[in-house]
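Box 3.1 A note on notation
Throughout this textbook, protein chains are presented in two layers. The first layer is the amino acid sequence; the second is a token string describing backbone geometry. Keep the layers aligned when reading.
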Amino acid sequence: MGKRNLKCLLYHVVAIGFLTTTYSASLLQRNHISLPSFCTFATETHQPVTYQEALTYLFEKLPMYQRQGPAAYKKDLTNIRELCDALDHPETSFPSIHIAGTNGKGSVSHMLASILQSAGYRTGLHTSPHYLDFRERIKIDGELIPKEWVVDFLVNHHLLIDRVHPSFFEITTAMAFQYFAQQEVDIAIVEVGLGGRFDSTNILHPLLSVITNIGYDHQQFLGDPLPEIA
């Protein structure tokens, strides 16, 4: 990848109206769970795990803000750091652009990904939530992460997952970073989750950070004044 050309392109992106600043963010509370049944089945019987079984585990077994609310919130980056350390720090393997804000961050993420892809860069995109398929959260050049890759990641790292007890968003973020590193993307566009300085995506050291706007949202976790939310 031509780093000079990439930086030049990013300067033009900023010039058309994106606000650059360093942004931090937040995420979810440690919740101890037993070894997932689908992984136990796979390792003990050597039978293949299906994609649907993997999804059931992700959505039903892991702590998830949309399902548990405040009980799933954790105020530190311990889990994502431990996950990425065990995965040999995939988040350091690619340049990134970090997108934050109360509204519009999904649109900005997709616009930036489209711009970079059109310019010839192999572009990863990590956004949330998804609409129809979990794999919408992790894409490269518009292509969804393969079902087989999702299953293999969860099965291959089930002992790590059991030790760390990550949230849904933490393991999804680690999955995205590992996929982007393995597939050798030129750059990744990464949207924050809940937001705040403890968001799992905040372990990145991006080339560029973008804030679309900041409004009064998730105040019970992020604080009341806008500077605290930001």
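The longest strand covers residues 96-100. Strands lie at 27-28, 73-74, 96-100, 123-126, 138-140, 143-144, 187-191, 208-211.
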